[in-house]
Design brief:
Structural class: alpha/beta
Strand content: 5-15%
Helix content: 40-55%
Number of strands: 7
Radius of gyration: 20 Å
Number of helices: 7
Largest sheet: 5 strands, mixed
């Protein structure tokens, strides 16, 4: 990938950096040059942070968002409305919605979308865990009364939303699709705060 003129150690570093999302070869070279040019202590802190994050971060046992214990900070927050569950594809989507400040419920992260053409079915995501979560809450003092499916407005996102809505309707749970404040084919994590707030507040029943 890298030109031969770079030392082998730098070529290896650039190759690894290029594997990161949205990082092409040119960006990887700039990052690699910065790392070898910056203070050794800062590089050590970065390496330690990466290693520590990899060792300590896990998925929340309830919603599958990022956590350092069995429950994430959102699920542990008593001020959140547990009767409302917002379903998203990936952890970055939770961060995007939280940044907008327009939602006070809890979440469920699917870690993937239903995509039959790519051989990805509901069993390859956390959809079943969502249904089990809703079933366990059904008939309790604090049941889930509303689910907002906030997957991206793609074919896979729409198919996943419809699958979830069909399954939850049998439990009498109202299911809404995030309002079309997002461009068709758009990704949630790249939307601006105002668009996300309007999309959440203008949700519609599936």
């Amino acid at each position: 990938m890298c030109p031969v003129r770079y030392p082998s150690a730098m070529r290896r570093l650039v190759n690894e950096l290029s594997k990161l999302p949205s990082i092409g070869e040119k960006s990887a070279v700039r990052l690699a040059y910065h790392l070898i040019s910056t203070d050794e202590r800062d590089v050590g802190l970065l390496a330690s942070s990466i290693s520590g994050c990899r060792e300590s971060i896990r998925f929340c046992n309830t919603c599958y968002f990022l956590a350092e214990s069995q429950k994430c900070e959102i699920c542990s927050d008593p001020s959140r409305d547990e009767s409302k569950v917002c379903v998203v594809e990936k952890p970055a989507d939770v961060i995007a919605i939280e940044r907008s400040g327009g939602y006070d419920g809890v979440y469920h992260v699917l870690h993937g979308l239903w995509s039959p053409l790519r051989g990805v079915g509901p069993s390859n995501t956390k959809v079943q865990e969502l249904l089990e979560r809703a079933s366990l809450k059904h008939g309790t003092d604090s049941p889930i009364s509303e689910v907002v499916v906030a997957t991206g407005t793609t074919v896979e996102g729409d198919a996943t939303a419809l699958y979830i809505a069909t399954a939850l309707s049998e439990m009498g749970i109202e299911t809404f699709r995030i309002a079309q404040g997002l461009p068709k084919g758009g990704e949630l994590e790249f939307a601006d705060d105002v668009t996300l707030t309007h999309a959440i507040q203008g949700r519609r029943r599936l």
